[in-house]
Amino acid sequence: MTGAQNGVKARHGDTVRVHFTTTDTEGTVLESSRTGEPKTVVIGEGTINPLFEDALIGLSPGDVCTVRMSADHAYGKYRKQLVSTLKKRSISLKKDPLPGEIIIITLPSGQKTHATVKEVKATKIVVDANHPYAGKELLYTLDLVDIQSMPSGGAETL
């Protein structure tokens, strides 16, 4: 059912399909669902950021909104302590990575995490375990494609 024909507005519990585009404050597109199918979510299920759920409530299919999100609410502050210099022999790599590549490293706690290679030296590699968007204010454009209202609760598949 498309809400535009029936004046339906998204509400808590509805299954909605939405396209999103993420940009930085300079307008650079960081990610977008526009190259594929819209994302399907149930408003109130907690599978997306609560700010997105709040923004979708009251929209009708075809409506577009923008959510501005501070670094704290998006991917967190950039933390300098997550930049490390590692000995090459301490990480198992078949060949030297290139700057910008993402590799998996093991933290002192034993937990594995992704890190971006910043610099490759003769015997060491400088890596950054911050999320690539950490420390950035982000803009999310949400385009509500359609709604499947849930008058009696429970989720249905589109």
Structure report:
The chain has 158 residues and is mainly β. The protein folds into two domains: 3-74 and 134-148, Chitinase A, domain 3 (Roll), CATH 3.10.50.40; 80-128, Thrombin, subunit H (Beta Barrel), CATH 2.40.10. Helices cover 7% and strands 37% of the residues. The chain contains two helices and nine strands, in the order H-E-E-E-H-E-E-E-E-E-E. Strands 1, 2, 3, 4 and 9 form a five-stranded antiparallel beta sheet that branches. A hairpin with a 4-residue loop joins strand 1 and strand 2 (29-32). The protein is elongated and about 65 Å long.
Task: Write out key terms for the chains shown.
158 residues; mainly beta; 4-stranded antiparallel beta sheet; 7% helix; disordered C terminus
Task: Provide a concise account of the structure shown.
With 158 residues, the chain is mainly beta.
Q: What's the helix and strand layout?
A:
Layout: H1 3-6, E1 15-24, E2 29-32, E3 39-42, H2 50-56, E4 64-69, E5 83-87, E6 102-106, E7 112-120, E8 124-128, E9 138-148
Antiparallel strand pairs: 1-2, 1-3, 1-9, 4-9, 5-8, 6-7, 7-8
